[in-house]
Amino acid sequence: MRRLGYLLAAVALLVTGCAGAGAAGGGGRTLVIAIVSNPQMKDAISLRPEFEKANPGINLKFVSLPENQARAKITASTATEGGEFDVVMISNYEAPQWAANGWLENLEPHMAATPGYDRQDFIPSIRDSLSYKDQMYAAPFYGESSFLAYRKDLFDKAGLTMPAKPTWRQIAEFAAKLDDRANGVAGICLRGKPGWGESLAPFTTVANTFGAQWFDQNWNAKLTSPEFKAAAEFYVNLVREHGEVGASSAGFSECGNRYNQGQAAMWYDATVMAGTNEDPASSKVVGKSGYAPAPVEKTQSSGWLYTWSLAIPKVAKDKDAAWKFMAWMTGKDFVRKVGETYGWNRVPPGVRKSTYDIPAYRDAAKAYAQPTLDGIADASQQKAMLNPVPYPGIQFVGIPEFQDLGTRVSQQLSAAIAGRESVDGALKQSQQYAETVGKSYQEVR
Questions:
Q1: Which value, in Å, is the radius of gyration of the alpha carbons in the chain?
Q2: What count of Cα atoms within 13 Å lies in the side-chain half-sphere of residue 240?
Q3: Where are the transmembrane segments (predicted)?
Q4: Are 78 and 128 contained in the same domain?
């Protein structure tokens, strides 16, 4: 309860006004939906008239924000019962914790009352990651693990062959050979942008496979351990020496833009990237990419597990209308609508098993469909971590304090990438932040 109090006090400082939730619009009821401004979400926003036409009297108002801003605003509103939003976009980091806190609506009764919604069609690991006590509190929009995209044409030109299961050491060697600054092509693109859901996501998978932990089983902080230091030095050096220009401010979107414009030979990130890579409307490298499993060092696999999903805050005024919208955006028919309207590469991946049975999607996604499913299937702590840890999560630490802790550590990592701080200095400061969190858990053991 003390830790929850700290969280509530912190997020209360972030709350800003967002009038309109629960209000009546000119044509009827208006739902206010907080959403992350990723490409797949933009497609959903553009299809809004389809929903409004099928549901007279329900109007949609989207509040679309960059990832870091969206997380802060949604957390603040939900934790303080601000009531700004009728539907919020969250992930498998927030869903179980917020359900345990009583902040979210249990979706099981809504799913059961919706013909054809088919809860069992969700990929089990994705479904379970959004559940608390076997009850779902968020509905997945898309799911992902992480893998490595690489330019097959550049590999062929350099006489290189991507292994079926590459190591990070091999990837560093490839990046050095493929780095072509004269022609504006980086050897690899890796996130360096501060944010616990930005640079910390790929970096933590590297740390895991190097044998590192954020905390040991007794909640001792381990950010200055030899394993954590080795991972940090490797990541920082790789992106500084062979990564993209301006790496310390590059996140998922920035790396995606660079890779799709032919400005990077490799890109390690979320499997959801593949749809954009293969979309002729946004990419200059369509058909030129191969997709390899997340690189490893000491573990069997290292890919993460993540899903952007929709949830209803407990204080939402019209939960039935909110669920109607959620069922539309996370249902089977929506998948087909996106495919038929925008092309099958833009379908939300990694969530419904039935999506992978659609012939048109299988054909469009043949380069990355199976690697995506394999990555999600392999994403578990037992495979991705060398040592046991006391927290849930692969690319995040599944505790409330990680939103602040992870952001602080990511700022240190970004400073090291930018050359403003040494790796040792960054980890020393990060260790102090982590020790404070670890001690609070030791005190309640």
A1: 21
A2: 17
A3: none
A4: yes
Neighbour-count burial for 24-54, b at 16+ CB within 10 Å, e otherwise: eeeeebbbbbbbbbbbbbbbbeebbeebbee
User: Token pair of 248, please?
Assistant: 């310390």
CA 214 – CA 438 distance, rounded (Å): 10
- Alpha-carbon gap, residue 407 to 428, rounded angstroms: 15
For position 392, which CATH number holds? 3.40.190.10
Check whether residue 106 and residue 16 sit in a common domain.
yes
Residues in CB range of 317: below 8 A, 6 or more apart? 21, 22, 83, 86
Mean pLDDT of the chain: 93
Written as one letter, the residue type at 435 is: E
What region does 425 belong to: left with phi over 0, alpha with psi -120 to 50, or beta?
Answer: alpha
- In three-state secondary structure terms, 219 is coil
250-299: per-residue pLDDT in tens? 999 999 999 999 999 999 999 999 999 999 988 999 999 999 999 999 99
Q: Which domain holds residue 416?
A: 146-303+377-442
Same domain assignment for residues 170 and 276: yes
- Express each pLDDT in 100-155 by its tens digit: 999 999 999 999 999 999 999 999 999 999 999 999 999 999 999 999 999 999 99
Question: Is the pTM here over 0.85, yes or no?
Answer: yes
DSSP string, 386-415: SS--SS--SSS--STTHHHHHHHHHHHHHH
* Cα distance between residue 335 and residue 340, in whole Å: 9
- Extract the tokens encoding 40: 């797949």
Q: How many domains does the chain have?
A: 2
189-207: buried (b, 16+ CB within 10 Å) or exposed (e) per residue?
bbbbbbbbbbbbbbbbbbb
- Contact call for residues 2 and 293 (beta carbons, < 8 A): no
